[in-house]
Structures are given as structure tokens and as C-alpha cells.
Amino acid sequence: MIEDKNPQRTPLSELGEFKLIEHLTENFKVTQKSTIKGIGDDAAVLDFGKKQIVVSTDLLIEGVHFDLSYVPLKHLGYKAVVVNLSDIYAMNAKATQVTISIAVSNRFPLEALEELYAGIATAAQLYNIDVIGGDTTSSTSGLVISVTAIGEVNEGEAVLRSGAKPNDLLVVTGDIGGAYMGLQVLEREKEVFKVNPNSQPDLSMYTYIIERQLKPEARKDIVELLKQIDVKPTSMIDISDGLSSEVIHLCKQSKVGVDIFENKIPLDPQVISTCEEFNIDSTTIALNGGEDYELLMTVSQDDFPKIKGNPNLTVIGYMTDEDRGMHLVTRSDEKIPIIAKGWNALKD
To answer: Which helix (H) or strand (E) segment is 61 a member of?
Structure first.
């Protein structure tokens, strides 16, 4: 056989994270009866009787997902758990266990890892989950954390990304954009510190958005709320990569379109004022920022009376027929196509 001296080399950045996953896994077929939902959602769903098991896993890599120059290790341990639990709640499930694996270089003393695990323990206590195992190994390139989250859901109650229907309402929890703007403030202060190591930043004006970045919370309360008001979303996803990316996932999986109304997107006043300070458009941040770990869901219009006026839930648009496309309706009533410009882990 003649060796190909010029093999094709496709940069991973051309695909992005989600197209890469689709490409690498397109030939994987589900063969086990217990696999209800495999690759392609916030978590896999496994059926072992009356309860279905929900499983999700995630990697956090130093220099890619976090910067230890401003991320305290205790906060990092807490966040590593919480962002994985968010995927479980996005399936309308109850989180029950996690496994924690780390790869660590020899620049970290024991005390540093104790801080990391103190954050993990705090998250486990607050979210009432068990840490049931994991692995540790050495690393030549800093700290790597892998968390697998496990949950359970009653048969028929799991919510996938694929159930949205035209005319369903698009609903978001809480407010969005804060985590990204918190990151911008921290990055700015890092650059100031490089120039003047004696400077002490005053972050009192940014406490909410910095907490959104360093110590996010998963919306366990929303899963409980939905049960209380007897609402089962038709589809759901958590906002980890930005509103635009997540709504595109829902639309593609459900084969629908969407109209999102700019004036309905919930923004905290601190996000708005910080966007003005940085001269950044707040709608752009809401659409593309990511790391808010709020839940984005579609709800039948029949359930609108049950969610109307609830301070935790905001209707920001509605689903349309697939051929009508995905649009942002601006404050001036223009329709702009929605494009995913959120977090891409594979971008150079």
C-alpha cells in the first residue's frame, strides 16, 4: 500500500465541540434495552425498572476552563460539582451521587487539594448527594478535574431536548449574562495586577456577577418547583454555553423554530451597568455569555396560568414551525437570525 504523504488534517476548531461530538459518535448505535437516551442530551438516561438512572460527565481543565490566578480552589471544587449537577436537573431528575477524578501536578501541595475537596464536600452537603468514588493520577500540565454525576427520575418523567412543539412557550429561569461579565471583571483585574502587583482591586460593585462566575448554583429548586405546580416541560437544557447555543440545540433536536424577544430576556441591573462600563451590548452577552447554569425550557401554552407571575420563571419567546427559522425579535421589531456564538472549548 502506498502511504499517503499528505494526510488530510482538519482543525478541531472548524467543527466546534458539538459538531465534533456528532462526528465522532455518529456510528455508535444503542444496543442495550436499558439505554433510553444515549449521546446527544444533557445526560444519558438508563432504565433499570421503576426508576430511570441519569448520568452526565464533564471535564474541567486548568488554563481552558479555569484560571487559578483568581479562582480559589475551594470555589473550584464547589463549581466542579455544581456544573455537573446542573445537567442532571436539566433532565428533570434528582441528583444523587458524583464521582470525582483529578489529575494533578507536583506544584500542588496536600493543603491545596484539601481546599479543593473542601469545596466538593460543601457542594455535596448542600445538594444532598454522595461522593462515591473516582480516581487520582499525576499531570504534567496543571490540574484536571473530571466529575460524573448520577441521578434518578421516575419512569416517564425525564425531560429531553427533543420534545418541544410549535407554539410552546420558551421559558428561562433566573437571569443570564452575569457569569460572563463576572469573568470580564476578573480578567481585567488580573491584567491590572500584572502591571502593579501591589494593587488591591475593589470588587464591591461586582459581588453578584463575580459570585455567578466563581460560585454558580444549580437549579435544583426549579425541578422541585415544577413538580409542585404540576408542570412538566416539553424540553429542557441548562445554559452552560450561552442562550443562543442552547436554544439552537432545543430547536435542532425538536425540529422546530423559535422567536426570542429581546425585551423579555431577564438581566440583573449589575449585568446591565457592567456591560455599559465595558461598552458591551447586554443582549449579546445574554445570548453568548454562558456559564449561568440556569435552565432553559419549553412549556405548553396550556400550562401558562401555572407559571404566570412566578418570579423564578420568565417567558422569553415561543417555538414556531421549523421552516420559520430561529430568530431574535429586537426591541425595534426586527427579526435577526440566531447564530451560536457561545463558548467553544475547541477554539484556538
So the answer is: strand 51-61
DSSP output for 147-191:
EEEEEEEETT----TT---TTPEEEEES--SHHHHHHHHHHHHHH
Q: At residue 108, what is the residue type?
A: F
Give residue 49's pLDDT.
72
Report how far residue 220's alpha carbon sits from residue 96's, in angstroms, rounded to the nearest whole number.
Answer: 12
Alpha carbon 121 to its chain's center: 21
Q: In whole angstroms, what is the distance from residue 77 CA to residue 310 CA?
A: 32
CB-based burial of residue 153 (10 Å sphere; 0-12 exposed, 13-18 middle, 19+ buried)?
Answer: buried
- The tens digit of pLDDT for each residue in 266-283 reads 999 999 999 999 999 999
Nearest partner of 167 among 259, 90, 247, judged by Cα: 259
Q: Inter-axis angle of helices 73-89 and 110-126, to 10 degrees?
A: 30
CA–CA distance, 137 with 212 (Å, rounded to integer): 30
pLDDT surpassing 80 at residue 202? yes
Say if CB 301 and CB 168 are below 8 A apart. yes
**Cα 45 off chain centre by:** 18
For residue 306, which phi and psi values (nearest 5 degrees)? Answer: -75, -30
Q: What is the model's pLDDT at position 311?
A: 96
Segment (H or E) for 82: helix 73-89
Decide if 160 contacts 253 (C-beta within 8 A). yes
Q: Which residues contact 258 (CB under 8 A, 6 or more apart)?
A: 170, 247, 250, 251, 317, 318, 319, 320, 326, 327, 338
Band of pLDDT at residue 28, cut at 50, 70 and 90: low
Predicted TM-score of the model (pTM): 0.86
Rounded (10°) CA dihedral 228, 234, 240, 241: -160
CA distance 43 to 224: 19
CB 101 within 8 A of CB 146: yes
3-state secondary structure of 35: strand
